[in-house]
What we know:
Blueprint: E1 2-7, E2 27-28, E3 31-32, H1 33-43, E4 48-53, H2 57-64, E5 73-78, H3 85-90, H4 93-96, E6 101-105, E7 108-110, H5 112-125, E8 131-139, E9 147-152, E10 155-161, E11 170-178, H6 181-187, H7 199-208, E12 212-217, E13 221-223, H8 229-239, E14 244-245, E15 248-249, E16 254-255, E17 259-261, E18 266-267, E19 272-273, E20 277-279, E21 284-285, E22 290-291, E23 295-297, E24 302-303, E25 308-310, E26 313-314, E27 319-320, E28 325-327, E29 330-331, E30 336-337, E31 342-343, E32 354-357, E33 360-363, E34 372-373, E35 378-379, E36 384-385, E37 390-391, E38 396-397, E39 402-403, E40 412-413
Parallel strand pairs: 1-4, 1-6, 4-5, 8-12, 14-17, 15-18, 16-19, 17-20, 18-21, 19-22, 20-23, 21-24, 22-25, 23-26, 24-27, 25-28, 26-29, 27-30, 29-34, 30-35, 31-36, 34-37, 35-38, 36-39, 38-40
Antiparallel strand pairs: 2-3, 6-11, 7-13, 8-11, 9-10, 32-33
Helix pairs in contact: 6-7
Amino acid sequence: MKAVVLAAGLGTRMRPLTFTKPKFLLPVAGKPALDHVLLLLKNAGINEIAMIVGYGREHLIKRYGDGSEFGIKLRYIHQQKLLGTANAISLAEDFVGNENFLAINGDTLIDQESLNLFLRRYGEVAPTPNFGGLMATIEVEKPEQFGIVFLKGDKVSEIVEKPKRVKSRLANAGVYVFSPAIFEAIKRTRKSKRGEYELTTSIQILIKKGKMVYTSPLALWADIGRPWDLLIVNEYFLRGQRGEIHGKVEVGASVEDNVYVGEGSRIRSGSYILGPTYIGRDCDIGPNCFIRPCTSIGDDARIGNAVEVKNSIIMDHTNIGHLSYVGDSVIGNNCNLGAGTTIANLRLDEKPIKMEVGGKVVNSGRRKLGTIIADNVRTGINCTINVGVKIGPNSAVGPGAVIYEDVPPDTMVFVKPALKKREWKPGRS
């Protein structure tokens, strides 16, 4: 079976991280998110893949080439205008020919066992008369935020986007197997109010034409649509890694179970590292720092003396100066956090933290969430960044500043204290 991976989107909800790279290349447990998708497909026996690319395609092509390094055959199809998921699928018609094929969103991460069960389910339903497709589903707590699947028996009867009345909690998970009949349904699909050709509308047309669409449940699912989703997926994949030490651990450092340390990295004396944690190549960690669980640190990073990092993603070539704290945060490439930088990750009233996403203030549902910092950001000494704040690329925060709101790209924020001078002599009050 061939597969089609949708990786053309702008990733506007993932900004500021996606100002400088496509969201599919954002790191998760030491690898770009799309690496995990391709490896899932390969491990399931699917090695002939077409990738639909658009925004940032040059980064994707540079990363994956012809796919040979990943043990797959990879073809790129350029979606020149981002006209929606149905349009993206339609571009692969010549690639898949007259065969059934798998389609998956490039920012959708699932567990290997669920994908294997999904393909097993496909083997059961594919021979049935009028087979049109199979779609993966996941039960969600807030169905009003998702495309919800309604069933009649064991078949899909309807898909409703963000229903107001809750009658089903089965969300569309963005993983499908389609028969070639989907292409005719796409040709009959009209633009939505968003000006896009929606794949869910095409599936509805498929069903109305008498084709049977079945479902298969997933155990784990994460759609990397919002910045904090990276932390959720990062934790899952870190818990599945094997602890290995390829670098040097100095006497006096403590590295616990399920910690990966890449080649050329040094863990200096007094450092205490709890797993699951990933540390890339050529990193300098410590001395006397505390790396807490579910932290992923990229290549050539520097974590200074007495720094504490917890449940965070630190990308390549980033330096965190001594006496700093980073919790529940994502820090981009080539950043420098000055000594004493403190990132808040808990409200005083302990209510869920809100963040601006796609022009709207959204409740993250997370009790602990720090900051999202894009590439090439600098902070001065002793600055504080409040919960839910985002800092755009190529920006700077001056020493001693307290940041309560988002910082746009290419911006410097600083405070200028009012100084007072008076005569003073030692020993006099």
